[in-house]
Amino acid sequence: MHNESLNKTKNLSCFFGISDGERTSLAVEYIFYELLTYIHFLLAYFNFVPMWTFVIGVIVYIPRWMICLHEMQHHFTPKTINPITRLNLLSLTLLQLGFVEMRDIHMRHHAHPAKPQDPEYYHIKGHWLAGWINVMFSPEISTYHWLKKKKMDDEFKRGVSIRFILFVSLAFAFGWSFLWYLIPVRLAYGSCLYFFSYGLHRKNGDYGTFAIEYPLWLKIIASLVYGEKLLQSVSEHDIHHDYPTIPGQYLRASRPWYTPRASRQRQINPVTLETQEA
C-alpha cells in the first residue's frame, strides 16, 4: 500500500517528512557543534589538549555544523527558528550574516540552481581555482552582496552588531592566538562549502545539479565521521533539489520512487521563502 501510494502521488515529501523531534534535534545539534568548537579551542589555548587536536577536530565539527544549518534552512522559517540559532554565533568574520539572511540566499539558490540568477553562482562560475578562492571568502562576499541589494532592518542590524562584538571580543581576548581558531575554522568552512557548491553543481565542465556515487568504503567512513545527513545530501543531491524538504538522511530511501523534476520552472514563495513550482 505504501509503495502504491507513492507511485500515485509522486509527492515524496509527504512520505519522507521530518518529525517535530527531528526538527528539534537539528537545532540542538547545530548549537552543540558551535559550543564544541569554542570549548575545544579554549581547552587547546589553555594547554589542556594539544592545539593540533583542535585543528583536526574542526574538520569534523564544521561540516557537521554546516549540514545542520543547511537542513534547518529547509525545515525552519524566520518565524519558527529559535532566537539563539538565528544569530549564527560561530564566528567567521567581522560582518557576518545570520540564519535568516543565509536562508534567504539558499532559497534563491534552490530557485535558480547553477544559473546566473543563483546568488551563489560565484561559487561555481569559471575555473575550479576561482571557485575555491571565492568560497574561501564567501562570508565576506555574501555580506557585501546583501548590503548592496537588501534592506537592513532593525533585526539585521542587531544580529550583525552582536556577531561583530563577538568576533572583536575573541580577537582582543586571544590576540594572535585567535588565528589558531580562525584559520582552521575558515579553511574547514570554505573547503566544505566548495565541495557542496562546485563539487555538486559542476561536472565535466557542465553546470547543473548532480548525484555522486562513491565507493562503499568511502561511504562507510563518511557516514561514521560526518553522518548520514551529510553523506546523503551530497550523494543524492539531485533528489534534494527536487524535493528539498526531504531530510538528508532519507534521500537515499526515496531514490526508488524519484522522478526528476529539473525541467519544471520554480519560483520563490514571497511569504515562506520556500521554492515552489511555477
User: What is the average of the pLDDT values?
Assistant: 88
What structural category characterises the helix and strand content? mainly alpha
Biggest sheet architecture: 2 strands, antiparallel
Rounded to an integer in angstroms, the radius of gyration calculated over CA atoms is: 19 Å
* Beta-strand percentage range: under 5%
The SSE string, one letter per element, is HHHHHHHHHHEEHHHHEE
Multimeric organization: single chain
Helix content range: 55-70%
Give a concise summary.
The protein is mainly α and 278 residues long. Helix content is 63%, strand content 4%. Helix 4 (51-75) crosses helix 6 (99-111) and helix 11 (216-226) crosses helix 12 (228-235).
